[in-house]
Amino acid sequence: MADYRIRFSDPNDPLAVFQYDTEITGTQFNNRLQGTNSSDLIRGGAGNDTLLGGNGNDILIGIGNYNETDRDVLTGGGGVDIYVAGNGEANFYNNPTGDAIITDYNSSETIVINGDRELRFAAKSVANVGTSSPDLIISAGNLSQVIIQDFGSTNNLNFFKTDYEGENDLGGVFLV
Ligand SMILES: [Ca+2]
Ligand SMILES: [Ca+2]
Ligand SMILES: [Ca+2]
């Protein structure tokens, strides 16, 4: 069992710690990475990657370096999964054309994005994300970070709890 730690923007805040059993890392090219039946930390690296967590509570990180134009597809599978699109240092998708598509998000899971910028939530249809159901785009400032597939009703915004400049001053945002 190993720890994955997320640093928030305020160095006085505690690190968020998530545990996993197996680490799987892609290359700089487009990868399709399949997790195990246990808890995985899957990193796509550069390229347009498809990450499949499978069973277990997985941590999915599509990106390699910041400021990439990747479009990654993250599927958590069974378990309660964590999708990481930023930390206290940066938005991982720090380019207008890059983002992560989460295909099977449910409201018990966690999405972590950077909270340094004003966050604007928008729900609208995205033609190139699978089905005809509207998808939810989560942006940090003017940068789209995460697209939650088929989760686009504005009613779903009520599910989201942010801590941007909140009482805990996390500098990261958890949507739960
Ligand atoms: Ca890759
Ligand atoms: Ca897994
Ligand atoms: Ca999983």
TrEMBL record:
Pfam families: HemolysinCabind. InterPro entries: Hemolysin-typ_Ca-bd_CS, Hemolysn_Ca-bd, Serralysin-like_metalloprot_C. Transmembrane segments: none annotated. GO terms for molecular function: calcium ion binding. SUPFAM superfamilies: beta-Roll. This is Calcium-binding protein. It comes from Nostoc sphaeroides CCNUC1. The lineage of its organism: Bacteria, Bacillati, Cyanobacteriota, Cyanophyceae, Nostocales.
